[in-house]
From TrEMBL:
Belongs to the LAG3 family. It is found in: Cell membrane; Secreted. Keywords: Adaptive immunity, Cell membrane, Disulfide bond, Glycoprotein, Immunity, Immunoglobulin domain, Membrane, Repeat, Secreted, Signal, Transmembrane, Transmembrane helix. Residues 50-131 form the Ig-like domain. This is Lymphocyte activation gene 3 protein. It comes from Eurypyga helias. It comes from the Eukaryota. Interacts with MHC class II (MHC-II); selectively recognizes stable complexes of peptide and MHC-II. Interacts with FGL1 (via the Fibrinogen C-terminal domain).
Length: 158
């Protein structure tokens, strides 16, 4: 996993043998074990790393009015019971222009107002709640719906 992992040598002297992974990838999910030998004793601990991802389809820049799909997945093993979506911190209702399926949100005709922070919240059968955030950027025209630009003949217009 190098060079994405590190251990802080200075922290080891204080009994902190934490492992830092940056950036975390989906394939990093699983059980991790640390073993430390000190004064003829071996100490160990196990930590399970769960990973949640939000992906955009199709990948790349989103163009206004072109359909998109946000998908939220987690490595949690229990069965998914509920998916909630939040847009800019507010619970997002799913009107008819938005189609929601387990772990996914499809926006049929995205508008500039759909840009911003999207957070999915997954609730599982064991009552575990997991969430992740995706910052959605949309390319489009953010101005009047029928703009009119006047320019003098012979001059430049932008």
């Amino acid at each position: 996993m190098r060079p994405r992992v590190s251990v802080q040598d200075a922290a080891l002297r204080n009994g902190d043998f934490s492992l830092r992974i940056e950036p975390v990838r989906s394939e990093d999910a699983g059980l991790y074990e640390a073993r430390v030998a000190y004064n003829m004793e071996i100490h160990s601990c196990q930590v399970e790393l769960g990973v949640v991802t939000v992906t955009l389809s199709p990948p790349g820049p989103v163009v206004e009015h072109e359909p998109l799909l946000l998908t939220c997945n987690s490595s949690h093993r229990a069965s998914l019971v509920e998916t909630l979506w939040f847009h800019n911190g507010h619970l997002f209702p799913t009107p008819r222009t938005f189609c929601s399926s387990p772990g996914a949100l499809s926006i049929v005709r995205p508008a500039m107002s759909d840009a911003g922070s999207w957070r999915c919240q997954l609730r599982y059968s064991d009552n575990e709640i997991i969430s992740a955030t995706y910052n959605l950027q949309i390319l489009g025209f953010d101005g009047p719906t029928n703009p009119v630009v006047y320019a003098a003949a012979g001059s430049a217009a932008d």
